[in-house]
Design goal:
Helix content is about 75%, strand content about 0%. The radius of gyration is 39 Å and the shape is elongated. It is mainly α.
């Protein structure tokens, strides 16, 4: 094989590896800023979760209290009874 082809292949590969390492270094430097940026969002999500849990506990207590009371069902319109007297003559 021609040595120029191998040299250009190695040059391209080393350029790709160098570009990847540069991008990786930039991302590594930016990671702490991303973590601190997300921190306040996590605190607000935790506070919202606590409010939701308190609301669910209150709802659960209301449901348990209502389950202990007897439930009386009233028929709003009493139905008339039909009495079967047997077969009709005819």
């Amino acid at each position: 094989m021609d040595t120029n082809v191998l040299a250009s292949g190695r040059d391209i590969l080393s350029l790709v590896i160098f570009a990847f390492l540069c991008i990786l270094a930039i991302l590594w430097i930016l990671v702490p800023f991303a973590v601190f940026g997300v921190k306040s969002l996590l605190h607000s999500l935790i506070a919202e979760q606590r409010r939701t849990n308190q609301a669910l506990e209150a709802l659960s207590e209301q449901l348990q209290a209502s389950a202990l009371r007897p439930v009386v069902l009233h028929d709003p319109a009493p139905t008339t009874r039909v009495v079967d007297t047997g077969p009709t003559p005819g």
